[in-house]
Design brief:
Elements lengths: L5 H10 L2 H11 L28 H11 L10 E6 L4 E5 L4 E4 L2 E3 L3 H8 L4 H8 L2 E13 L11 E3 L10 E3 L1 H4 L8 E9 L5 H5 L2 H16 L7 E13 L4 H12 L5 E3 L9 H17 L1
Parallel strand pairs: 4-10
Antiparallel strand pairs: 1-2, 2-3, 5-8, 5-9, 6-7, 7-8
């Protein structure tokens, strides 16, 4: 829990239980605002469900615009790092080489291991011991008039004991007002990720969609015909924080102390959420600036 949802641990410590902690958080949450002073009284309060109206691409585009095109090299995979007397040579897959005083690696741990193994096999081995799972989501659009069962809340989670082939579903059109037209209902279903992960690899898109519709019929009694469906797959896209992860991170930090110019960030290590990854980047950036 401390690795995956550290905020929940903090809530439990401060409020004696998660339920009391959530109630306190709801009472004390700030008013919704992206910048500047809080809105006037009566304005809507902050929700725990927040995203960009035009998708996650908004974040990457904003970062690109802020950094500037002359400081970016796109579609240039890093093949290996080579230590120098001061800094590193960054070898790219197209044969080019870059000189760097510091290297911040935001790639998955298994890719970081490939970059590092040439000069420290022990560190690469530690990175490769982090396990990963593959998952898929299926976004399905229904005609609103065809959805005759009540959709309560923002979705549901399926306990493993139920023996179903899906893990959870989000009612995207309820959770996010801009995700579908007014005359439609969108449901996003989650598959794999450590439970029936073989389905992510074995089922093609039509078979995956068919399976998900069958599961929605069993779980919800939803028999509507899909107006549109799209499958998204992430192979080795989610790290598994298995028991002992914090201990492994302690050992990793100890090893990294020998390489003060290498900074590992991202979901592989100390939090899988976007906020966790941003925080890691901020900490690493401050460390670089402080020299």
């Amino acid at each position: 829990m401390l690795s995956t949802f550290p905020r929940f641990v903090d809530m439990e410590l401060k409020s004696r239980s998660l339920v009391l902690g959530m109630i306190a958080a709801m009472k004390n949450r700030p008013l919704a605002t992206l910048s500047g002073p809080p809105p006037k009284p009566g304005a809507p309060r902050m929700t725990y469900f927040m995203s960009f109206k035009n998708g996650m691409d908004t974040l990457s585009r904003a970062c690109t615009e802020f950094i500037g095109p002359h400081s970016l090299r796109l579609n240039a995979a890093v093949k290996a790092l080579e230590p120098k007397s001061s800094g590193y040579l960054v070898h790219l897959n197209d044969g080019a080489r870059l000189e760097a005083d510091h290297v911040m690696i935001a790639a998955p741990a298994y890719d970081a291991a490939e970059m590092i193994k040439g000069f420290d096999s022990n560190l690469a081995g530690q990175l490769n011991r982090i396990e990963w799972s593959s998952s898929a989501t299926v976004s399905i659009l229904f005609r609103r008039e065809d959805v005759t069962v009540p959709l309560r809340g923002f979705g549901f989670i399926v306990p493993r004991v139920e023996g179903r082939r899906i893990n959870a579903a989000t009612y995207s059109s309820i959770k996010w007002s801009h995700r579908s037209p007014d005359d439609s209902v969108m449901i996003r279903v989650f598959v794999g990720g450590g439970h029936h992960e073989e389905l992510v690899h074995d089922l093609d898109d039509p078979a995956m969609i068919k399976m998900v519709l069958e599961e929605l019929d069993v779980v919800l009694g939803l028999k509507a015909e899909a107006k549109f469906a799209k499958v998204y797959r992430w192979f080795r896209g989610m790290p598994k924080y298995t028991v002992g992860h914090l201990d492994r991170m302690t050992v990793l930090d100890r090893t990294l102390a020998s390489y003060p110019d290498i900074h590992l960030i991202g979901c592989s290590y100390k939090g899988i959420g976007i906020g966790d990854c941003v925080h890691q980047a901020q900490v690493a950036s401050e460390r670089i600036l402080q020299g």
